[in-house]
Write a structure and sequence with these properties.
This protein is mainly beta. Helix content is 0%, strand content 52%.
Length: 122
């Protein structure tokens, strides 16, 4: 059974940084895609960034140049380094994964974590 557990969320002032982590277990597929999806209060979920098994990445336009997605295969952990945070980055950040879908097809990801709250104050 695939499990994704996020950590690293918290409260930070605008301009600050946070690093989110997602510990993955039970995933045995050689080809995969993992990503971060966020949901702001009262808004729909929004894809943030994805990375596949060969290291190719995608980013949503609002986070390009500020966020970096990476993975440590030895630790089975996904990361999201978030710099220059803005109040509009506030929301619950979910780690998600799939063996088939990637990039802007994140809505079809089959595995999801419980989410971690990120709050950016102005």
């Amino acid at each position: 059974q695939v499990q994704l557990v996020e950590s690293g969320g918290g409260a930070v002032q605008a301009g600050g940084s946070l690093r989110l982590s997602c510990a993955a277990s039970g995933y045995t597929a050689r080809r995969y895609c993992m990503g971060w999806v966020r949901q702001a209060p009262g808004k729909e979920r929004e894809g943030v960034a994805t990375i596949n098994s060969i290291g190719s990445t995608t980013y949503a336009d609002p986070v390009k140049g500020r966020f970096t997605i990476s993975q440590d295969n030895a630790k089975n952990t996904l990361y999201l380094q978030m710099n220059s945070l803005k109040p509009e980055d506030t929301g619950v950040y979910y780690c998600a994964a799939d063996h088939l879908y990637c990039g802007n097809r994140w809505r079809y990801f089959g595995y999801w974590g419980q989410g971690t709250q990120v709050t950016v104050s102005s």
